[in-house]
Amino acid sequence: MIHSAGDFVDDYAVDREERNDQSFVFLLDVRDGRPRELRLVPTVIADCRVMRAGREARAIAARMEERSAALGTPCRWLEEERFLQVPLA
């Protein structure tokens, strides 16, 4: 389940602890009608625009890795592709 994926671009003040200016684009890989992998591409939001995260991408992904691990969901950062991979199969 993907929780709280709405309100992708908002005009709220940035919360420096919650980091509502950092998010992900979710890409679901489906093969033979079954979900196989979820890719999370780190993004940053500034001036009501979404951009792929640059140097902060790894830190954004690391925070998600930590939170996912606490819930028993394994994931790993793929540096060359610059996304967080969540195997589903």
Number of helices: 1
Helix fraction, binned, reads 10-25%
End-to-end Cα distance = 15 Å
Number of strands: 5
Rg is 13 Å
Unreliable stretches covering 5 or more consecutive residues: none
Mean pLDDT across residues: 88
Shape: globular
Textual characterization of the structure:
- The chain has 89 residues and is α+β, with helices and mostly antiparallel strands.
- The chain is built from one helix and five strands.
- It has one helix spanning 57-70, and strands spanning 22-31, 34-46, 49-52, 76-78, 83-87.
- The model has no long low-confidence stretch (mean pLDDT 88).
Give a brief rundown of this model.
By secondary structure, the chain is α+β, with helices and mostly antiparallel strands. It has one helix at residues 57-70; strands spanning 22-31, 34-46, 49-52, 76-78, 83-87.
Relevant terms:
89 residues, five-stranded antiparallel β-sheet, globular
Produce the secondary structure layout.
Blueprint: E1 22-31, E2 34-46, E3 49-52, H1 57-70, E4 76-78, E5 83-87
Antiparallel strand pairs: 1-2, 2-3, 2-5, 4-5
